[in-house]
Structures are given as structure tokens and as C-alpha cells.
Design a protein that fits this description.
Blueprint lengths: L1 H6 L9 H22 L7 H14 L5 E4 L4 E4 L6 H13 L3 H23 L4 H5 L5 H8 L4 H20 L5 H16 L8 H12 L3 H29 L15 H16 L13 H21 L4 H8 L1 H23 L7 H20 L8 H18 L3 H11 L1
Antiparallel strand pairs: 1-2
Helix pairs in contact: 2-5, 3-4, 4-5, 5-8, 7-16, 8-9, 8-15, 8-16, 9-11, 10-11, 12-16, 13-17, 15-16
């Protein structure tokens, strides 16, 4: 609670903290819409087309049976959960927007809700926390029509509610919130079932701490979530012949060495915030420059905060940050197990985005809760802000902007 108490106080910027947060949101929204407008594909992947297809199907009154172009017959939508397409459909229906623009508007609504949640966490420095969305990974996620957009906000809210529940074991209503949120995470992405482990672990923790009523309550929540997820998958099987759209175990997976190499590449790539490494015939000088810049920033942060010994000490006591790390670890283990069993997408920035998101939020939250009076702390906060804002700017369509600039000149 101590770190949250500090975050309720205004910093030296004073009453402009909320204005900066709002300005940052508008900057992110403008950048995302600009990217979508310029990109020829509109940031649509095959998954995106499927989401939009179901949303349009619902608008056309055909329900959850979508047209299979190969057989020219309708089949039940089960390859992905229906949560994200249904949200697109609802927004399109109520706003009159096409499903394409409804999906982009929905992403911005989730982005805004994330900003508001971060404001609740740390009002004084919410704009620095929110700048984390400027990382390449998250700019991509919120530009594409992907279910990761609501999923990221969902896992952040899960960390927040878990922390609140740990602080107030007798506040039983948090169990209800966590139940609904975990169910929504599953309905957005099948891997969202990993979140059922959170109330399960809370059950064990509270029983160990002799909060028997709370422990039993979270045990019931875990059981109900498992039953409901099982019923959903059974309904998929009954209507489509598969629990998740097709036989996901049929395709052979990589060898252990290839899997570990893919994992190492994915994790090392996630380390670089501004630009991901792409192997090409020509050297990527922008990647080299941004990588060196990031290393320089990390060295500066370490040098400016290390002498006080405050960061690592605060990190170990920061309950919200620890909840972020724990949930990130739970998701990471789940995605590794699933990826070993089934050959789906590579472990790239999309699949790893919830991990890096929660880790970055946990680290930056710990930083912003440090007292401004601590040596180097205040300056370090603004260095982090500038770094993520620079990442946002460098992830704008550079070639298009340069071409327009040349045209003007």
C-alpha cells in the first residue's frame, strides 16, 4: 500500500499529470490510426480476417456459422473463441462503423481503458507508466485486429485484482471480479485458460494463511471456471467436430533443439524495445542504433539508481509488481507447454506480448513509486518516458513520412 500512497500524490508537474496522460493517449491513438491508414493491408492478418468475418456474419444474421470457402458450406466458428469478434460486432452494431473500423476503434477503447487503469495505479506518474505502450510490440498489437489487444488489458487487470485480493482477504467480492475476468480471458483467447491458475493459487495461499472462507471461495471459482470452459469446448466439439476448430495435435512439432532456438530468438528479440531484429541481406543500421541506445539507457538507469540500493529493495516489496511477474510467469509456462504439444505460430512478439507487457509494467511501476527525493530517481523516470516516446515515433511509417518530406522540399 505504501507505493500506491506515494503515487496518489502529485509530482513536480502537479496538476498537469492527467493532461499529460490524455495527451499521450491522443498521440498513441493518432499514431495507430495513421499506421492503419498508410499500411496497404490495414494491419490485417489471416486471424484478423477470421475475426472480422464472424463479426460481419453476426451483422448479417447468420449467427456463429461462417462460410467455408473451400466447401461452400457453413460451419461453426470454433478455431478461435468468439469473445473478440462478438465485441467487434457489438461496437459495429451500436456505432454504425464497418467491422474493420469497429475493430480499430475497439482497440483504442481497450488502450484507453489501460491508460485509466494505470492512472488508478499511479495517478502522479501514470503518463510514464502508459508510455510503455510505445514499445514496438504493443504498437503492433494495437494496430492489428488481434485478440491480444483486449487480452493485454485483461492480464493487467488480473494482476491489479490479484494484488487487491491479497491485500484484503476478507473482501470476497474480488473473487467475483476475478471469476468474470478469467472467464472473459478464456473467451478472448483459448490460452486465457491459464488464468484459472490464479484463483487456484489464491485458494492454496489463503488456505495456508488460514483464511479458510476466502480459500474455499477461490477454490469454487477455479472449479466453476474449469466446468464452464469444459462446457464451451464440448459445445465446440458437438457443433464442429473439434474442440478448437481442427486437430491441433496432428502437425508434427519441432525437435527440442529447434524449439529452444526459436524460444531463444523470440526472447532475445523481445529484449529490444524499439525495433526487432530481422535477418536480411543488408545490415539493419536502425536496429543497431536503437539497440545501442537501449543499452545506454539501461546503463544510465543502473548507474543512477544503483548507488541508493533502493530499486531492488522496492522491487522485492512491491506487491503489484510481484503479481505482474507471477502472472507473466504463469502465462509463459502455459504457452511453452501448449507450443510443445501443438505446432501453431512461432514464439514471436505476438505470443510473448503478455509476458513482456507485465514485466515492463512491473519494472516501470516500481521505478515511478520511488521517491523523487532519492538520488537519480526523478531523472530516471523521465529518461524512461523519453525512451518509450522515441520508440513510438520511430515506429511511425518512416518511408512514407520521408517521401512526403521530400515531396514538400
Amino acid at each position: 500500500m505504501e507505493e500506491q500512497a506515494k503515487c496518489t500524490k502529485y509530482n513536480s508537474i502537479g496538476k498537469h499529470a492527467d493532461a499529460l496522460l490524455l495527451l499521450l493517449f491522443f498521440a498513441f491513438a493518432a499514431a495507430i490510426l495513421f499506421r492503419v491508414q498508410i499500411e496497404s493491408t490495414g494491419y490485417l492478418s489471416p486471424d484478423s480476417v477470421a475475426y472480422l468475418g464472424l463479426a460481419q456474419n453476426l451483422l448479417d444474421g447468420h449467427g456463429f456459422y461462417v462460410l467455408n470457402t473451400e466447401t461452400n458450406s457453413r460451419q461453426y466458428f470454433s478455431t478461435w473463441p468468439v469473445g473478440y469478434p462478438v465485441l467487434i460486432f457489438i461496437l459495429s452494431k451500436t456505432s454504425g462503423l464497418s467491422v474493420f473500423w469497429a475493430s480499430k476503434a475497439l482497440n483504442l477503447l481497450f488502450l484507453g481503458s489501460g491508460f485509466l487503469l494505470l492512472r488508478k495505479l499511479c495517478r502522479a506518474y501514470a503518463f510514464i507508466l502508459a508510455s510503455v505502450f510505445g514499445a514496438y510490440t504493443f504498437i503492433e498489437v494495437y494496430s492489428f485486429t488481434w485478440s491480444e489487444a483486449p487480452f493485454l488489458i485483461g492480464v493487467l487487470l488480473l494482476a491489479y485484482l490479484t494484488n487487491k485480493s491479497l491485500q484484503k482477504p476478507e473482501a470476497y467480492f474480488y473473487a467475483g471480479y476475478i471469476f468474470l475476468l478469467c472467464l472473459l480471458l478464456f473467451l478472448v483467447r483459448y490460452v486465457g485458460a491459464f488464468s484459472f491458475g490464479v484463483p487456484g493459487l489464491l485458494c492454496l495461499y489463503f488456505l495456508y494463511k488460514r483464511h479458510s472462507k476466502t480459500g474455499i471461495l477461490y477454490g469454487v471459482v477455479t472449479l466453476l471456471l474449469t466446468i464452464l470452459a469444459g462446457l464451451y469446448l464440448y459445445n465446440n466439439y458437438r457443433l464442429s467436430g473439434y474442440t478448437t476448430g481442427f486437430d491441433r495435435l496432428a502437425a508434427p512439432t519441432e525437435s527440442i533443439s529447434d524449439f529452444l532456438q526459436m524460444l531463444a530468438q523470440g526472447l532475445s528479440n523481445e529484449f529490444f524495445i524499439i525495433r526487432k531484429y530481422r535477418s536480411a541481406s543488408q545490415p539493419d543500421y536502425l536496429f543497431y542504433a536503437t539497440a545501442l541506445l537501449q543499452i545506454a539507457v539501461l546503463v544510465y538507469l543502473y548507474a543512477s539508481i544503483k548507488p541508493t540500493g533502493s530499486f531492488t529493495g522496492k522491487l522485492g516489496k512491491n506487491s503489484f509488481a510481484l503479481c505482474c511477474f507471477a502472472i507473466a510467469g504463469l502465462y509463459f509456462v502455459a504457452i511453452l507447454i501448449l507450443r510443445q504439444l501443438s505446432h501453431f505460430d512461432d514464439l514471436d512478439y505476438r505470443l510473448l506480448s503478455p509476458v513482456i507487457f507485465l514485466v515492463l509494467i512491473g519494472l516501470v511501476y516500481t521505478l515511478v513509486t520511488l521517491s523523487d527525493d532519492m538520488q537519480g530517481a526523478k531523472c530516471a523516470k523521465y529518461v524512461v518516458l523519453c525512451f518509450f516516446v522515441l520508440s513510438l515515433l520511430l515506429n511511425l511509417p518512416k518511408e512514407f513520412l520521408l517521401a512526403q518530406l521530400k515531396h514538400l522540399i
